[in-house]
Write a structure and sequence with these properties.
Belongs to the sodium:solute symporter (SSF) (TC 2.A.21) family. InterPro entries: Na/Glc_symporter_sf (IPR038377), Na/solute_symporter (IPR001734), Sodium:Solute_Symporter_SSF (IPR051163). The chain is mainly alpha-helical. A hairpin with a 5-residue loop joins strand 3 (about 575) and strand 4. It has helices spanning about 20-40, 50-55, 60-70, 75-90, 95-115, 125-130, 130-165, 170-220, 220-230, 250-265, 270-275, 280-310, 330-340, 345-385, 390-415, 420-445, 450-470, 510, 515-540, 555-570, 590-595, and strands at about 480-485, 495, 575, 580-585. The protein contains 21 helices and 4 strands. It has a two-stranded antiparallel sheet. The protein has a two-stranded antiparallel sheet with strand order 3-4. Helix 4 (about 75-90) packs across helix 14, helix 8 packs across helix 9 (about 220-230) and helix 10 packs across helix 16.
Length: about 600
């Protein structure tokens, strides 16, 4: 049994970072920067866009698989998933089943299309399939979401750490931003992926530090589980089909699948990593390896939330006034239980920093690739009438990475003054992902789709998804009971339930669980795109879209090739009868007759 008064905060002291903590944190930053220096002066020295943005397609499966996971699990995710299980229970871990369902879809349907194309920018596909307008619209939407997100993912954990550990957020933001920009700029994709591996180890270390310490202090893993059960934190059987319920099997599995696919199937950051491998089978293997690594970290972080609950279950830190937000739970726990163990707080913060570093470096590199491929190269060709030389492309990529790193720092500091926009900026990552996923699906699955339908679908999908995602007011989520019965006498010794409003007071679309936002954006984009394409095709108001079979998922590609061969056979066997009407001549040697 544990209450917060057993912790180091009992004497009213604030958490402080010790000398060894700073040493551990500085060592992590030095190693990350050193990896960038190493790849700057080895191999081709990042002189070409092929090496700088795609690692010369010479990387191996495991580092790429770990990097895929690290790009997905940010510091916000580490802090958020632990507080999710503390505040709302374990239902969220069901989302891990969706990753297993979505992995083969991404690996065997979407990835082969990008791999055949071998384009640095995923949005080059959209130009080949629909046209330049579609490419630029999608590229702009991606760039805007990533620019906003990488600043927020840098600022939010720094704010949480400052509130609890006393580590100034200015130091946190500047150190992460500068080091990340440094190794991303000089080391390219190879440095980004290898540092992701190093930083992933630190993320696991930070989470397992809490799992091990929490389990030992509670008296074992079973005792942690028992306390969670008594506190109604264990829930895995919510099959309610109501889409307004925050987390159910339906929302987590279906919404989780679409979220995963919007990231791993068509997102520039992940597609670019998968193209660093030379063969399709290796890229598919990297996706399969990434799944259990991602699930292991997700489950570990979830259990860490239960360990934190076991410590604070009789004296909730937020209700007792120790913290102002539940995202601060994880650093508070480390300060309360490990502050007197030299270096352990530093190791934890290094793990949280690593979550920010891996996400921001991924964003910087992918934004540099998109800007170069979708904007600068076409502009250069239009002005000079020739393609941009590889040597200049490498230089421009480094300059772009540097500029995006500086922009990231600016947005991180600006986030302090954004107020309510902070949560909106975080939500935009999922809201934009659904329509973009719908756009690529429209192109890869439906040969009849055209540019007018694609742009219309994307525009309407984004508008409605943004409205549903950001419209309001929305009901506050229903949190589980929090207790202060074990707090000191001057605390509020009450048990509270947060978010108990009358749901009938809210507009129906504003009550929908956030897990369905990506699904709504996807379906609207797809349906509007198909309807507008059909109307435009019937009126013949648009030019024919790209119908190269290689621009479609494998089973559609095979169908189109068979249909094309059939059409050619029909043309070869076409003759005119006595009335001048075309008829098919049946020959014993014809492939039509042979059933081919």
């Amino acid at each position: 049994m544990f209450v917060c008064t057993d912790g180091a905060m009992e004497d009213g002291e604030t958490g402080k970072f010790g000398t060894w903590d700073y040493v551990v944190l500085a060592l992590m930053l030095v190693v990350s920067a050193g990896i960038g220096v190493y790849y700057r002066f080895t191999g081709g020295r990042q002189r070409t866009t092929q090496e700088y943005l795609l690692g010369d397609r010479s990387l191996s499966v495991f580092p790429v698989a770990v990097s895929l996971m690290a790009s997905f699990m940010s510091a916000i995710t580490l802090l958020g998933v632990s507080s999710e299980n503390y505040s709302y229970g374990t239902q969220f871990i069901v989302i891990n089943f969706s990753y297993g369902i979505a992995t083969p879809i991404a690996a065997y349907l979407y990835l082969p299309v990008f791999f055949k194309l071998q384009a640095t920018s995923a949005y080059h596909y959209l130009e080949l399939r629909f046209g330049q307008v579609t490419r630029l619209a999608a590229s702009f939407a991606f760039s805007l979401q990533m620019i906003l997100y990488m600043g927020i993912v840098l600022y939010a954990p720094a704010l949480a750490l400052e509130a609890v550990t006393g580590l100034p957020k200015t130091i946190a933001v500047v150190s992460i931003g500068v080091v990340c920009t440094f190794y991303s700029t000089i080391g390219g994709m190879k440095a980004v992926i290898i540092t992701d591996v190093f930083q992933s180890l630190l993320m696991f270390a930070a989470v397992w530090l809490i799992v091990i310490k929490g389990s030992i202090d509670a008296g074992g893993v079973l005792e942690v589980w028992r306390i969670a059960v008594e506190g109604n934190r264990v829930e895995l059987d919510n099959f309610d089909p109501d889409p307004t319920v925050r987390h159910t099997w339906w929302g987590l599995v279906i919404g989780g699948c679409f979220t995963y696919l919007s990231l791993y199937a068509v997102n520039q950051t992940q597609v670019q990593r998968l193209l660093t491998l030379r063969h399709l089978k290796k890229s598919q293997r990297a996706l399969w390896v990434s799944w259990p690594v991602l699930t292991l970290l997700s489950l570990s972080t979830s259990f860490s939330g239960l360990c934190i609950y076991a410590f604070y279950h009789k004296c909730d830190p937020k209700e007792s006034g120790q913290i102002s937000a539940y995202d601060q739970l994880m650093p508070l726990y480390v300060v309360d239980t490990m502050r007197h163990m030299p270096g352990l707080s530093g190791l934890f913060v290094a793990g949280i920093f690593s979550g920010s570093l891996s996400t921001v470096s991924s964003a910087v590199n992918s934004l540099a690739a998109v800007t170069l491929e979708d904007y600068l190269k076409p502009l250069y060709a239009r002005i000079y009438g020739t393609a941009l030389p590889e040597s200049r492309g490498g230089l421009f990529s480094k300059i772009l990475a540097l500029l995006y790193g500086i922009l990231c720092l600016g947005i991180a500091f600006a986030a302090e003054h954004l107020g309510g926009v902070l949560q909106a900026s975080l939500s935009i990552f999922g809201v934009v992902g659904g329509p973009l996923f719908g756009l690529f699906t429209l192109g890869m699955f439906f040969p009849s789709a055209n540019q007018l339908g694609a742009v219309s679908g994307l525009s309407v999908g984004l508008a409605i998804a943004l409205w549903v995602g950001f419209g309001g007011p929305k009901p506050a989520p229903h949190m589980l009971p929090m207790s202060t019965e074990g707090c000191p006498a001057d605390s509020n010794n009450v048990t509270t339930v947060v978010g108990d409003e009358n749901p009938d007071d809210y507009f129906i679309l504003y009550k929908i669980s956030y897990m369905w936002y990506v699904v709504i954006g996807f379906l609207i984009t797809l349906l509007v795109g198909l309807v507008i394409s059909h109307i435009a095709n019937s009126l013949r108001k648009v030019p024919a879209a790209g119908r190269d079979p290689d621009l479609f998922v494998p089973f559609v590609r095979n169908y189109l090739k068979r249909k094309h061969n059939l059409d050619e056979d029909c043309e070869d066997n076409m003759v005119k009868n006595e009335n001048g009407i075309n008829i098919v001549r049946i020959s014993t040697n014809s492939s039509l007759n042979s059933g081919k």
